Amino acid sequence: MMTLQIVWFLLVGVLLVGYAVLDGFDLGVGLWHLFTKKDEHRRVLLRSIGPFWDGNEVWLITGGGALFAAFPPVYASVFSGFYLALFLVLMALIFRAVAIEFRSQEEGKRWRNFFDWAFSIGSLVPALVYGVAIGNLLGGVPLDAGGDYHGGLFGLLNPYALLIGVVGLMMFATHGALWIGFKTEGELSEKALNWARIAFFAYAGLFVLAAVVSLATQPQHLENYKEMPVLWILPVLALAGFAVLGLLILKRRAFHAFLASAALIALLFLLVAAAIFPALVPAVDPKLSLTAFNSSSSKLTLSWMLGIAIVGMPFVLGYTVWVYRSFAGVVKADDEGYGH
Question: What is the pLDDT averaged over residues 287-305?
Fold first, then answer.
């Protein structure tokens, strides 16, 4: 039973990593959308994510479904206690989707400006809130004995969580700028690489600050490292990942930097997992935390789900690879698709 619980802790994490890497770049594209004034450039940005953005969001839905089936008390606690925050994210994603579809349906400047703002704000809110959510998990959530959250929306917006939220925002901004850098050409690509450099320095600096603050204020993060010293390889790899990413950005190698950014995102999620395991929702009082061991479904449920995952995941991964290969290459203003 314990093995299945650990496996599902990791599988939920894999789904969240997949979402952060894939939807992270198109959220990042939205963050930069208003930084270019040319309508042609904005149309190219939409076309660069057009074939992918809705499929990328499926990873989040799948992650939520897996959480519901594998760890029902965690799902109940998160989706009820964080209801307002999740509602804000949902509304932002709806506005964002509508903006992508409707922005270029009319030629009017006011029409397009309205949906340009909707697209960017609809990208900003989720990118920030996701990081704030991670910050609250790292800092501990005020749960009662029944696993219910007590604190309200503003309780989630504490300084530590906001710091982690801004780190996540810069992570997505860097990731998105690198996507633009290798999916476009000419002036827009050059702009994007400049954006990536600016965002990266903010990303790296804020990460270091967050690490220092975490070590000073969240000593519980080191408990697993004390028990398993091999875990220290993760922060070492993360620092190396930042160094490699920064070097590739400075050399303006957009595609390789994008791959390095994706790997670094996965590493940072591993750091979070190593800090909080076995908790899925760490509580301020550790005894009240919802963990992989006290919040899981039955052995039968976890076993059947694992079988379905083993059969289904290759199809999902194969389809994802096929889509990205089918729409590989540089996007141009005169291409068919979004933003015509």
Answer: 90
What's the gap between Cα 91 and its chain centre?
17
- Cα–Cα distances (Å) from 48 to 16, 36, 180, 187, 305, in that order, read 23, 15, 7, 15, 35
Name which of 5, 10, 3 is nearest 272 in CA terms: 10
- Catalogue the E-assigned strands of the chain: 279-281, 290-291
pLDDT tens digits, residue range 191-220?
999 999 999 999 999 999 999 999 999 888
Cβ–Cβ < 8 Å for 290, 283 = yes
Give the separation between CA 309 and CA 338, rounded to whole angstroms: 33
Please give the Cα distance from 196 to 211 (Å, whole number): 22
Which tens digit of pLDDT belongs to each residue from 118-163? 999 999 999 999 999 999 999 988 888 777 777 777 778 899 999 9
Q: Is 99 a residue whose pLDDT tops 60?
A: yes
Please report the DSSP string for 132-196 in residue order: HHHHHHHH-B-B-TTS-B-SHHHHH--HHHHHHHHHHHHHHHHHHHHHHHHHS-HHHHHHHHHHH
The answer to whether residue 271 scores a pLDDT higher than 90 is yes
Q: Report the distance separating Cα 167 and Cα 203, nearest Å.
A: 6
> Rounded to whole angstroms, how far apart are CA atoms 340 and 275?
46
Longest dimension (CA), the chain: 62
CA distance 42 to 47: 9
Planar angle of CA 313, 318, 259, nearest 5 degrees: 100
Find residue 279's DSSP bridge partners: 291
